[in-house]
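User: My collaborator sent over this chain with a note saying "see what the structure looks like." That's all I know about it. Can you take a look?
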Amino acid sequence: MNTHHKKITLLLTIMLTILLSGCMYPGDEKAVRENPYADQVETVQKAVNSYQESNDGLLPIKTKDLETDRYIKYPIEFSKIVPAYTEKIPSNAYESGGIFQYILIDVDENPTVKLVDLRTAERIRELHLRRQINGNLPFKESVGENVYEIDYKKMGFEAPLMIDSPYSNAQLPIIVSGDGNFYVDYSIDLNRILSEQKPEVKPGDDIRFLLEEESLVVPAYSLPYTVNEQNEPVFMANIPGK
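Assistant: Without extra context I'll predict from the sequence alone. Here is the result:
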C-alpha cells in the first residue's frame, strides 16, 4: 500500500471512529442520567450519615413547605454535602442533568436515601396545566372510594398519559381523586408483589412500603393503598371527595 492510500485509510479510520463515538455517546450519556445506580445512592447515604453526625442530628435537606406526598417532602440539599462530605453530585441527579430527585424517607427513625423519578412529576404537571386551560376535569368510572379514571378525550388528549413503572415493564395509569389532584396508580405492581411474594400485610396497613423495599425509586405522587379481605390492593378510605 503506497503512502497516499495509507493516508486515506488512516483518515477513513479516524472518521469512522469519530462517527461511532458520536453515535454511542448520546446513548451512554442517557443511560448515566436515567439509571438509579445503587453505588451513587450508597455514596450519598454515607455523606448524609456523616453530615448528620457532624451537625447534631440535622439533615442536609431543603427547607420546603409541608407536602401531602411524603415521598417528595424531604429533598436532599447537595450544597450541604458537596464537596465537604462527598466529591460531587451524582450524574443521575436532577442537579446534574439527570432524571432523579434525591430524597430522604423515614427521617425520624432511619433517614434513608431514595430516588424520585421526575418524569412522573412532569406527567402530573402536564395534566394540571391542561386542567387549568380547560377549566374543568371530566371524571370517568370510579376505581375506588373518591378515586376515578380520567376522561382524557374531554381534556383534549388523543390517548391516556401513562407512566413507565420503575418496578416492572408495566405502563401505569394516572388517576384523579375527588378533589381534583392527580396520582399514579401503582396497583399493577402492588398486585404482582402480593401474589408472588405473599407478604404479611393486613387491611389498614399502607402497603406502599412493599414498593420502597423493592427499589431505590419510591412510589411518588401516589395515594395510600391497603389490602382488602381478598388480599388485593385497594385505595385507603377517606380520600378527599368532590
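A starting point for your reply to your collaborator: The chain has two domains: 38-118, 136-235.
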